[in-house]
Structure to design on (128 residues):
């Protein structure tokens, strides 16, 4: 079971790191989309949310400060689900595109919260 947990941490950590990196490398496009969704200060929102993803990804990957990592990804996922992936009150095609993203974000937030039930420090974690 310990190896399965480690593999899951690595996959999830890389997922969040990759998406955090995209917030910086694809910032121009992300800012435009964020702006189109009516988010105030879209530049800050994109870079700030990218930072949350990087913090969470590094935490999951290394096992360092897991509570902070969980909080970072939940602070990213839940607001983004409700702000960026609104599937209600839109046309059917938009609903079909946004609903899976909305549900994915909530499911990832829920899975991140479950990590809080695992005693710390996590197995195979780096230590300071």
């Amino acid at each position: 079971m310990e190896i399965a947990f480690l593999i899951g941490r690595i996959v999830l950590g890389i997922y969040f790191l990759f998406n955090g990196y995209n917030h910086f490398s694809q910032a121009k496009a992300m800012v435009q989309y964020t702006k189109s969704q009516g988010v105030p200060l879209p530049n800050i929102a994109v870079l700030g949310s990218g930072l949350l993803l990087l913090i969470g990804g590094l935490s999951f990957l290394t096992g360092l400060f897991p509570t902070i990592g969980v909080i970072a990804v939940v602070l990213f996922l839940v607001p983004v689900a409700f702000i960026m992936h609104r599937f209600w009150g839109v046309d059917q095609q938009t609903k079909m595109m946004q609903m899976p993203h909305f549900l994915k974000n909530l499911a990832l937030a829920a899975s991140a919260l479950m990590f809080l039930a695992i005693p710390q420090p996590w197995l195979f974690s780096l230590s300071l």
